[in-house]
Structure to design on (494 residues):
């Protein structure tokens, strides 16, 4: 019981720190989109380079976080030696990466479309290298069950990043101050990257205790064993992150217009609204994932997975309707000249739902130690995503990026479902899921009509009623009001 309480407490701390952190990061979206004009393409540069950063982070950690947890708890292995070996390895590869980028900075900057701004590239490279290295001390904190320091450092980075961004983009210009001539050429988007680099490097100072792990040395034979374990995780990670970032990376190369950076910036800003649902669903995942894995030894575990899938879909559909229903309020998260791209929001949210369903389906190959299937499904989904982007971006612009996500995750989801039903059959309640999906589709259509034909406040009122109808359906079918704590007694039959 004590272990369960400890697990629940740690999960809550990790979950809340992640969710709060993502929410605080969203505060930078209105800042950037209100300060950086869409036509300048500045936010498109941010969107593009952060997509590269996400991909590079997966490559530079090459599955070593998961490998650390596996081998530090493996019988016959020395946890201190595992930690020091991985720490040394990731530091070495990260340093080598930075050295190569600096050695070929000119050609790399030109190939990425930034020949006049090599500073963007070396700043990004140094930032992601430090970030990759820090992933191992962060994993060590989790291994040592120190969630408070983990959460404090994660949130500390975000608060510092927001403070410095506000200082550069808002406070100093408002006060008319120009220290060191940083505004001689106006506000520069490059400072988004410079600030991120400073904050990332600064947080390394707080890992002094964890960096003492180097003293245990490097074991090459251990490293070879760990690499044999980590490479499938790397393949799966690359495929997974490409499903999320490939569109933003490909777009500048495929889009035919001269306003590519501006168009990518519009897309990048609008999908942040769709990511609100990702933030909400992450809270659900943090809550039920430990429960699902914890029930794997129970006889009714498959029934548990089936119910988890249904409730996950119910929860995400409700989040979808809430975002669409209150779009007239949420649109103010981004600057006015970015709102032309709001039509991508429902499409990207559907892709997010499919990604969540795929995550739920992934339990079968994780529980049966057949993780190679995950790499296969994600890889095929990634190929579909690439194909849709390459074919349709020249024709329909950033709308292709939104539909590519649906196609990629939809393909991976279907493959995982049909193969999984043969390898590890789970009787998902498809009838119930279909009813909720159909209801959500009908209510969504009603919201679109209301938004297009009614005034703002009238549409909001109608949409609120439609959301209540969906909640009523949930209560009627799966969560009767009589089962609620405290107030449930007032709904029970006497």
């Amino acid at each position: 019981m004590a272990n369960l309480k400890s697990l629940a407490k740690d999960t809550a701390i990790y979950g809340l720190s992640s969710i709060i952190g993502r929410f605080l990061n969203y505060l930078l979206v209105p800042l950037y989109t209100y300060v950086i004009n869409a036509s300048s393409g500045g936010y498109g540069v941010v969107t593009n380079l952060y997509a590269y950063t996400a991909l590079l982070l997966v490559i530079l950690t090459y599955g070593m976080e998961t490998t650390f947890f596996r081998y530090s708890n493996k019988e016959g292995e020395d946890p201190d030696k595992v930690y020091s070996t991985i720490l040394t390895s990731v530091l070495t590869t990260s340093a080598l990466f930075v050295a190569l980028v600096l050695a070929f900075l000119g050609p790399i900057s030109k190939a990425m479309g930034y020949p006049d701004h090599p500073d963007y590239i070396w700043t990004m490279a140094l930032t992601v290298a430090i970030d990759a290295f820090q992933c191992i001390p962060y994993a060590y904190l989790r291994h040592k069950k120190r969630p408070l320091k983990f959460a404090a450092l994660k949130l500390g980075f975000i608060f510092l990043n927001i403070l410095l961004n506000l200082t550069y983009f808002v406070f100093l210009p408002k006060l008319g101050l120009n220290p060191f001539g940083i505004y001689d050429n106006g506000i520069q988007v490059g400072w988004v990257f410079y600030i991120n680099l400073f904050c990332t490097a600064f947080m390394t100072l707080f890992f002094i205790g964890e960096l003492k792990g180097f003293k245990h040395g490097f074991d090459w034979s251990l490293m070879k064993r760990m690499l044999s374990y980590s490479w499938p995780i790397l393949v799966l990670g690359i495929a997974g992150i490409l499903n999320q970032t490939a569109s933003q990376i490909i777009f500048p190369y495929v889009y035919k217009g001269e306003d590519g950076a501006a168009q990518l910036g519009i897309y990048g800003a609008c999908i942040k609204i769709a990511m609100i649902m990702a933030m909400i669903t992450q809270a659900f995942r943090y809550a039920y994932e430990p429960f699902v894995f914890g029930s794997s030894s129970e006889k009714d575990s498959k029934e548990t997975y089936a119910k988890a899938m249904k409730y996950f879909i119910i929860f995400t559909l409700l989040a979808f309707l809430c975002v669409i229903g209150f779009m007239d309020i949420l649109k103010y998260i981004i600057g006015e000249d970015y709102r032309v791209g709001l039509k991508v929001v429902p499409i990207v949210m559907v892709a997010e739902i499919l990604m969540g369903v795929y995550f739920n389906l992934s339990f079968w190959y994780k529980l049966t130690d057949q993780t190679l299937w995950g790499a296969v499904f994600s890889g095929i989904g990634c190929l579909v995503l690439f194909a849709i982007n390459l074919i349709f971006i020249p024709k329909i612009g950033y709308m292709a990026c939104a539909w590519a996500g649906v196609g990629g995750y939809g393909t991976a989801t279907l493959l995982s479902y049909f193969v999984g039903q043969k390898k590890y059959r789970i009787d998902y309640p498809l009838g119930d899921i279909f009813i909720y999906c159909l209801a959500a589709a009908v209510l969504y259509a009603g919201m679109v009509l209301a938004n297009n034909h009614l005034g703002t406040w009238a549409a909001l009122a109608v949409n609120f009623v439609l959301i209540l109808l969906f909640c009523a359906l949930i209560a009627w079918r799966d969560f009767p009001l009589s089962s609620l704590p405290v107030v449930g007694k007032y709904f029970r039959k006497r």
